[in-house]
Design goal:
The protein is of the alpha/beta class. Helix content is 40%, strand content 14%. The longest helix has 25 residues. The chain is globular and about 70 Å long.
């Protein structure tokens, strides 16, 4: 159906105001296209008609190249838990910078950060550092395969674990599946051969996982899962689900691998602590680097001993910047300022934001919901219960660009977040930032009601 004039006008007004207030970003984007494919180097930070160029950040706020300020609910996709230019992190990193960035040798900051992480995450007995979450999950999966002598890792349908080949399988959920989802590659350039080493199962479905393991467990090394899938839609684990995975892994003699790259922030010991579910290995990244590139993987000492250079049958693992002094120092400062009290406070702010968003949807008669856990929340365009990642994917169907328009209108109103509707809380935030975001969202939703009526009528309650 063609949009009515009012719906078309709402869309055009949002685009026009965005373009009028972002002339500097447009010029920079045009220049960037000469050197970068599409003018960007990260797929996740590009959006139409062109991305906003941020030039400074302080605390919970960003400033763009045109001088506009935004409260930052993206925080570099959850990695900046202390926001921007946190004084203690800046001071510690600057001091280390004057003494050297990386020495190509063993260093004390590596040991200090490893010790702190092991103290916090009880399932980790030994760990190693990488430069990204992608590397962390890749090496964790390799360790599981080497330790078990089996090739197959089971991942969740719709789960995301970075961009290495063995996790580029069912990153989007199989919407056609009526029972067990079919494993498939999605990115061009990923060889079909990876399907010989990856199987998929639906998140939050212990029966489906049990059926898959009953048939194939002798070929399976382990199960990898985000305790709450991030890119998959912030669908929380069902009560007992993570503990159920632990029980299944034990029953079938498999390793359980948690990707806590995003969810570590939800408790001092990660979501595994909050849910009382202990994995064999854990991948970390994001907040543990204090704003610098970082990753880590660790777990049981017997599994991690495979990486001991002095031991038999060593698994090699190198990286020029693994455990570099700047990242280790900044990460140590960041975690020292993130005790359980700070985590509880931002989790409470996240829950306040979620409650406020859900109240807005109810008052405006919109069939949508805010879903998540603590300081991590996301808008889902349905009022139906969401259990699996297929449920979350279906919620995004048939809304005709609504997410993208809402993202641009929130930018117009001074709120910076992801174009999929994710909101994450940082420690510099308080009630004022939550109220600012709720006011901006209310105005944006009211503006988009005519667009919903014509392009996504299922979202509106009958008035």
């Amino acid at each position: 159906m063609e949009a009515t004039a009012s719906a078309a006008q709402a869309k055009q007004d949002i685009l026009t105001r965005y373009q009028q207030r972002s002339a500097g970003s447009r010029a920079r984007h045009e220049e960037a296209q000469r050197f970068l494919p599409g003018g960007e180097t990260r797929s996740s930070t590009w959006y139409a008609p062109y991305p906003t160029y941020m030039v400074a950040g302080e605390g919970a706020w960003l400033t763009d190249c045109d001088g506009h300020r935004y409260v930052d609910f993206l925080n570099n996709y959850t990695s900046l838990i202390h926001g921007h230019a946190q004084p203690a992190i800046v001071e510690e990193a600057a001091d280390q910078l004057t003494r050297g960035t990386v020495f190509g040798s063993a260093s004390e900051p590596q040991v200090a950060l490893a010790k702190l992480l092991i103290e916090r995450v009880s399932s980790i007995e030994k760990l190693r550092f990488t430069n990204s979450g992608t590397e962390a999950t890749m090496m964790m999966m390799r360790a599981a395969r080497a330790f078990s002598g089996r090739d197959i890792i089971v991942k969740m349908d719709g789960g995301y674990h970075g961009s290495h080949d063995f996790v580029e399988v069912n990153v989007s959920a199989d919407l056609a599946a009526t029972a067990q989802p079919a494993a498939r590659t999605e990115e061009r350039g990923v060889p079909e051969a990876v399907l010989n080493a990856v199987m998929v199962a639906p998140f939050n479905d212990l029966r489906a996982m049990e059926a898959l393991l009953s048939e194939h467990h002798q070929r399976i090394a382990g199960i990898i899962v985000e305790p709450m899938p991030n890119a998959g839609g912030m669908v929380p684990p069902a009560p007992g689900y993570l503990r159920g995975l632990r029980e299944l892994a034990d029953r079938f003699g498999l390793l359980l691998l948690f990707d806590e790259i995003v969810t570590l922030r939800l408790s001092s010991g990660g979501l595994q602590e909050a849910e009382a579910a202990s994995p064999d290995m854990t991948a970390l990244a994001k907040i543990i680097g204090g704003g610098f590139p970082v990753g880590a993987f660790g777990g049981r000492a017997d599994i991690m001993s495979q990486f001991d250079p002095g031991g038999p049958g060593i698994l090699s693992h190198s990286g020029t910047f693994n455990g570099n002094n700047i990242t280790m120092t900044a990460g140590l400062a960041a975690l020292k300022h993130l005790d359980q009290g700070a985590i509880d406070r931002i989790n409470g702010l996240g829950e306040r934001l979620s409650a406020g968003i859900n109240a807005l949807f109810e008052s405006l008669g919109i069939r949508a919901q805010c879903l998540g856990y603590g300081s991590l929340q996301q808008i889902q365009w349905t009022d139906a219960p969401l259990v699996t990642l297929k449920d979350a994917a279906r919620a995004g169907q048939g809304i005709s660009g609504l997410r993208e328009l809402l993202h641009l209108e929130l930018l117009n109103r001074g709120v910076y977040t992801s174009n999929r509707g994710m909101f994450c809380i940082s420690t510099p935030m308080g009630s004022a930032e939550i109220d600012f975001a709720l006011a901006a969202l209310e105005g944006a939703l009211r503006m988009l009601r005519s667009y919903m009526r014509e392009n996504a009528p299922r979202l509106l309650l009958a008035s």
